[in-house]
Amino acid sequence: QKEVEQNSGPLSVPEGAIASLNCTYSDRGSQSFFWYRQYSGKSPELIMFIYSNGDKEDGRFTAQLNKASQYVSLLIRDSQPSDSATYLCAVLPSGGYNKLIFGAGTRLAVHP
Amino acid sequence: DAGITQSPRYKITETGRQVTLMCHQTWSHSYMFWYRQDLGHGLRLIYYSAAADITDKGEVPDGYVVSRSKTENFPLTLESATRSQTSVYFCASSPDRGKNGYTFGSGTRLTVV
User: Fold this and answer.
1) Do B106 and A90 touch (CB under 8 A)?
2) Among A82, A97, B27, B32, which one is most buried in terms of CB atoms within 10 A?
């Protein structure tokens, strides 16, 4: 069974620090990788996606992908209290079942 | 309004009743999905559709029925609601199989009493 694993947290970081969120996946042939942000009581919102090994930067967010080690991470620089949310990692696996598989999410708390 | 909308936003129903959750999107996306979200389980796929009149089961389909007679609508029906179906339900859509991710509706919080 194809799986996506995340530490549930909470991950607590001070305002202005770098938050590092990690995700591992089981399907070595997975093609696309996504990070969603979900505020309490709201729906998931796509914030980053990455397809190739290496880093992808978008403003304060950097997604990192290492296919050999089967992990993807999200770095949030200069963390703000407004970044406090649950971050969901999602993976598009290979083969016939190519629907997004989500991890259970990591709760991030940024304190002033 | 443009986008993907779900209704109702909140629903309380009794065990054994039939209930339908609605999902409507205005982008003409081919793919639509129903997920449920529960504490400790994350998002789990119930059913998906690749086009009008094409639907298939996801990870947790038991007790649910879907239809897709029009591209823009993808209703989810609980034929005989059970307490274990108390959850938050999200509809999502995508123009393709998901290479660029899915866009989610605002969700329906369903409570079965």
Assistant:
1) no
2) B32
Mean pLDDT of A87-95: 90
Lookup: tokens for B10: 């909140």
Token pair for B100 = 């660029």
Nearest Cβ partner for B97 among A45, A46, A98: A98
Contacts of B109 (CB under 8 A, 6+ apart): B9, B10, B11, B88, B89
Cis, bond preceding A112 (omega within 30 deg of 0): no
Is the CB of B33 less than 8 angstroms away from the CB of A99? Answer: yes
pLDDT confidence band for B69 (50 / 70 / 90):
very high
pLDDT, tens only, A28-83: 989 899 999 999 999 999 999 999 999 999 999 999 999 999 999 999 999 999 99
Q: Do A103 and B42 touch (CB under 8 A)?
A: yes
Contact A55, A64 (CB under 8 A): yes
